[in-house]
C-alpha cells in the first residue's frame, strides 16, 4: 500500500500546474531563476534560458493560461466518476510520459558543447527541468494507477452490479438472491 493514492498525486499535480500558471502570468522571473533549474542546467551542461525570458509578458502569460487550462481540464476529469477518471488518466499518463521523454531526450541529446550559447528556444535548462519533473511525477502517477487498478476494477464492477440490481427491482423483476 502506497503512502499517497494516485488521485492524491494527480490533485497535487493539478495544484502544481495551477501555481506554475499563476506564476508565469504574475512573476515569470521567479520560475526562470529557480536554483533547481540552475543546478540541472549546470550539471548537464545545458544553457540557461535567455535573461529576457521574463521580459516577454505576452508569451509567458499565454503559457501560464495554457497551464491553467490544462489543470482545469485535468481537475474536471479527476472529479468525475471513478470509471471516467480512471479511463482518462490511464490514457493520459502514458501519452504525457512519452511526450516528456521525447522532449527531455531532445533537449539533452542535441544540447551542443558545454558553454555554448544556443538560440534554440527548447534547448535550455528550464525546458529540461520542467520535462524532467513532469516525467518523475507522471511516472509516479502511472505506477500508482497500475497498482490500484485491480481494486478499482472490482469497485466499478460492484457498483455496476448494484445499479443493475436496483434497475431490476424498479422494473419489478425479483432476483433469486433477493428471494432468500
Automatic annotation (TrEMBL):
Protein's UniProt keywords contain Transmembrane helix: yes
Transmembrane segments: 12-32, 52-72, 93-110, 122-142
Domain of life: Eukaryota
Keyword terms of this UniProt record: Membrane, Transmembrane, Transmembrane helix
Listed Pfam families: Ilm1
Keyword Transmembrane helix: yes
Protein name: Increased loss of mitochondrial DNA protein 1
Lineage summary: Eukaryota, Fungi, Dikarya, Ascomycota, Pezizomycotina
